[in-house]
Amino acid sequence: MQQIFITGAAGFIGSNLADRLLADGKTVVGWDNFSTGQRKFLDGALKNKNFKLIEGDNLDLPALTKAMVGCDTVFHLAANADVRFGLEHPSKDLQQNTVATFNVLEAMRANGIKRIAFSSTGSVYGESAVIPTPEDAPFPIQTSLYAASKVSGEGMISSYCEGFKFEGYIFRFVSILGERYTHGHVFDFYKQLLEHPDRLKVLGDGTQRKSYLYVQDCVSAMLHVINQGTAKNAKHGVEIYNLGNDEYVQVNDSIGFICGALGLKPKMEYTGGNRGWVGDNPFIFLATKKIQSTGWKTSLTIEQGISRTLQWLQQNQWVYESRSHK
Amino acid sequence: MQQIFITGAAGFIGSNLADRLLADGKTVVGWDNFSTGQRKFLDGALKNKNFKLIEGDNLDLPALTKAMVGCDTVFHLAANADVRFGLEHPSKDLQQNTVATFNVLEAMRANGIKRIAFSSTGSVYGESAVIPTPEDAPFPIQTSLYAASKVSGEGMISSYCEGFKFEGYIFRFVSILGERYTHGHVFDFYKQLLEHPDRLKVLGDGTQRKSYLYVQDCVSAMLHVINQGTAKNAKHGVEIYNLGNDEYVQVNDSIGFICGALGLKPKMEYTGGNRGWVGDNPFIFLATKKIQSTGWKTSLTIEQGISRTLQWLQQNQWVYESRSHK
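ok -> structure tokens follow
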């Protein structure tokens, strides 16, 4: 792994990954359509001679193919990550996730690039009856278009691993937190509290249980197994790993951490029900035994991750202007 | 279920389903792009005043939406079913299966149609370690683009069931046999034996174990559960059923049935290995307890199904001229 192509390089995880790879002395080609990515996240990378930024969209296959020339590994992180609003624009997940992933695979094939890492999601397990949910949980029923599109991406990637001898690393993420976080419950809650510190609207009843992982831990985990080359010896050329924390919190716990750090006691306004939105899963907690058995472990607890995220948002309130949520 | 829309109506299963529904007094709108469908399969249906044929492609969303007007149920059977040749044209499964299924769902939504039946495949289980394989087998790794595209279709359908309150019936088929069969091992073997009765080339070593279901049993099973309305009370509005026989045979057994019926003793030429092609699964046997628990059962054994198929091919050798395999 010397010259690495990152789709979604100006995004939350992509830009953190780019910085890490550059610090490790790698050459990085960043690819982003800037639909949600932030140029500012690449300020550091752009100062590095080993970084090249190419602006483009995954739906433009010829441009994508050309941009990948010379790379040996692709991190495919670009995606429509609007889980909540999938029903408002059903074609978005199909185009930006499913078709985009197909294009990434075809661009790789055209360039003879075989190693791919893919950001999937713990949402692919639907409402699993097995918690913590392992990678080989019962074949799930999809409940969101977002997760369905990620399952579709996983399936194409593993088929390319089988059929075209690709080396695939599929990571099913819990929600990721940390520096450059621009999307999710901490983002939403802090935004509300900036606007009206005396009240907080919460989707659902606040009892939803979720697990979160710090972005630097997420990046470390991916690099850890790819450097070990675990997929090379896998039966179908692909390895699938849950990436998460070995603990979970309730939304209400998280609210407690946030309000405590800010010294606020807002009036809570719950929309009610045990789901935040249609397709929301009231309990997401992934088994992380497989990734931990490779020797990787987390550096921050969920509470520490939330605290780190909040600090970053406090210092970077510009993200609220440049990126309206949704 | 009174006015039924069938995609792939001129296909093997679609045309048999149309005939059955018409015999039951239903109104049927048949939709086909005739890429592999046969007009001749609809000879009977076209004589029935309750049948309307509309020629069109699932990728033409406006035409598809218009064609569905007035229907209350959609059987989405149209697909690229070229499992073996997926690697030669990877975009075909994406377009004809994944994108096509999305269009069917969107056309339904535009028309306020909520009930959908979908032909998925036992191949979605990949190389399952659990045999017979139940619907809730461990989350599989996809090994073919065809199966990956069916998983994608399943995921979108179940998401529409959850998000838009659709009523979904997903059927994971084993290989289907019987009248109007134009694709698969009996088709290929008989074709070879017509051309050179003294020798038979077999992909793999002939020990692949597969299960087969007679097309009339397949049609009966689908109608049986839809008439019971099982998905109406399902947790996410969708029910998934394996459709198969409660027995399996080796490819070599099947060759024995075929050669016995034809009175031939060809010299066998095996290509070797336990797979017929990349992505082939050496053992497909689905658990059918769930569909059987609804009261449905098969009428023919696999041997009887193969015999019936062979008789039909002998009487309809025109299919070899009109449809070159692949």
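The mean pLDDT of chain B is 95.
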